[in-house]
Design brief:
The protein is mainly alpha-helical and 197 residues long. It contains nine helices and no strands.
Length: 197
C-alpha cells in the first residue's frame, strides 16, 4: 500500500503511460504500474472505472487500443482529439488557436529545464503532449518540486486537459479510452482542490 504522498506521483505516472501510444512495449508495463497502486489511488476521482482499468478489464485487445489511439489522436484524416496543449488552449490569440507549438510549448520547456528534464527528441512527441506533461508532473511530485508541480498543473494541465477528456469520452471507440477520459477528468478536478486551491 502506498502512502497518499507516494500515490500522487504514481497516479500521474500511470496516467502518463495510459495516455501514451499503446504499442506492445508500452502496454506491457501497464500491469506493473497499476499493480503498484492497487486500489489505493488517493481520493475517489476514478469512481468505478478505476478498478476495471487497474485490473485490465477495460483494456481489451492491443490492436483495438492502437486503432482507437490512432483514430483519436493521430489520423490519417481528421484528428478529433489532438493530445497537445497548444491545440486546446483558448486563452491565446485567435490566430494561434487550434495550432501546435503555441506559446505554452516554450513555457513547458522552461519548466522541464527547472526540473532538470528534457524531452527526448527520439520519442517523437512534442513537449505539450498529454503523456509528456503528466510524466513531468509525476516527476515534480515525486521530487518534492511543489512550485513547479503547481505550475505544471495550474498553468498547463488544468487549463486544457478537461476539454481533451470530454472530447475523448465522446469520440472513443473503446471502453478503455472512454473510462480513461472520464477518470482523468475526475482526477484533474480532485487534484486541483489539493494542489492549487
Amino acid at each position: 500500500m502506498l502512502t497518499a504522498e507516494a500515490a500522487l506521483p504514481a497516479t500521474a505516472e500511470l496516467l502518463s503511460h495510459w495516455w501514451s501510444r499503446p504499442v506492445p512495449d508500452e502496454v506491457e508495463v501497464w500491469p506493473a504500474l497499476a499493480g503498484g497502486l492497487g486500489t489505493d489511488v488517493p481520493g475517489p476521482p476514478f469512481g468505478g472505472q478505476l478498478a476495471d482499468l487497474l485490473a485490465g478489464r477495460s483494456v481489451g485487445e492491443g490492436h483495438e487500443l492502437l486503432a482507437d489511439y490512432e483514430q483519436l489522436f493521430v489520423g490519417p484524416g481528421p484528428v478529433p482529439c489532438p493530445p497537445y496543449e497548444s491545440y486546446w488552449r483558448e486563452d491565446v490569440p485567435l490566430d494561434l488557436r487550434r495550432s501546435l507549438m503555441g506559446p505554452c510549448t516554450a513555457q513547458l520547456q522552461r519548466l522541464y529545464l527547472d526540473l532538470g528534464l528534457e524531452v527526448d527528441p527520439h520519442q517523437g512527441e512534442l513537449p505539450d503532449h498529454v503523456a509528456v506533461e503528466l510524466e513531468a508532473l509525476a516527476y515534480a511530485l515525486a521530487h518534492d518540486e511543489g512550485p513547479v508541480a503547481r505550475s505544471l498543473f495550474a498553468d498547463h494541465l488544468r487549463q486544457w486537459l478537461p476539454r481533451l477528456c470530454r472530447a475523448v469520452s465522446k469520440q472513443a471507440g473503446t471502453e478503455f479510452y472512454r473510462q480513461l477520459a472520464t477518470g482523468t477528468l475526475g482526477w484533474v478536478g480532485w487534484l486541483g482542490q489539493r494542489l492549487v486551491e
